[in-house]
Amino acid sequence: VLGEIRTLADLPEGVGDRQEPGRYELVRRRDRALFGCATGMQSWKKLLYPPELRLLEGRRAGGAWRFAAGHPPPPNYAFLGVRACDAAAIAVQDKVFAQGTWADPYYRAARERAVVIVVQCTSPGGNCFCASMGAGPRAGPGFDLALTERATARGSDFLVEVGGPRGAQLLRAAAPRSAPRRRALRDAARVERCARGMPKSLETDGLVEALCANLEHPRWRDAARRCLACANCTLVCPTCFCCDFREGGDLAGERAERRRSWDSCFTGDFSYIHGGSIRPDTRAKYRQWCTHKLATWHGQFGCSGCVGCGRCITWCPVGIDITEEAAAVRGGPGGAA
Fold first, then answer.
1. pTM greater than 0.85 (yes/no)
2. Cα–Cα dist 219/336, whole Å
3. I need a surface site. Which of 6, 135, 227, 312 has the fewest CB within 10 A?
4. In terms of Cα–Cα distance, which of 233, 240, 200, 214 is closest to 324?
């Protein structure tokens, strides 16, 4: 999980994970790696885009209403251990919440304050496919510092790469030693082997057109027969941003507020408009999620909504694999991949 780090003992030393569709297991490693796990259930969006946030608070005083922001300023975070796929996911959410005319003030303030310290991946998780999405295993631009861990039975050391001025300032305070070139080359090779050893992949060339051309493909019905519409995939996804807004107040009529909370395109109320839901069954909900994530997101934000972290596969109770479903649909009406 993501939690506050006070001492080195708070990091999961010597712990790794084993991921399969619908399964997550912590395992003991043979070394003392501090960052030996791949992605866990939680992503950094919970800190930049909180699951629930009071947006507005109003109080009546002297016959008049006064309204103000309902939340304090976001904390100053340092995100330690961000994987390349999650750094890419933060960049995707930047497009949604921090850019354009309707930027989200809380997200933008939290993002500007956050220091991002990446750990490059040298071994993939069981459901990872970030390499085929162009989101890893080496982190792209946008981080402050990037670490590559070399772990042994005695402990770990780190090769550090500076990604910006804040990172340079932090590194100077740590009084680092210069790394020999051969160490940098070996670590780069380890990351490259991770990319080649990725257990899953998704062919993205022509995928947008293929999904949009096959909205009545029988595979959507097959996925719906297995899908529980539980919304796990959207809650663990580091880029999903569907939300609900609710207004409320006290019985005395002296206080009012507006709150925003995470929602999902899988819930029954999310697509409800006057007269009923426009996506009444699981088939329509799963199709909406998959096609938005992999296809129509491009039209909205100029990129894919998927970074290949594999969380939706791991934490799906019935192990539905988005890479398999997309490959089946792009095969055309007959379903041949």
1. yes
2. 10
3. 6
4. 200
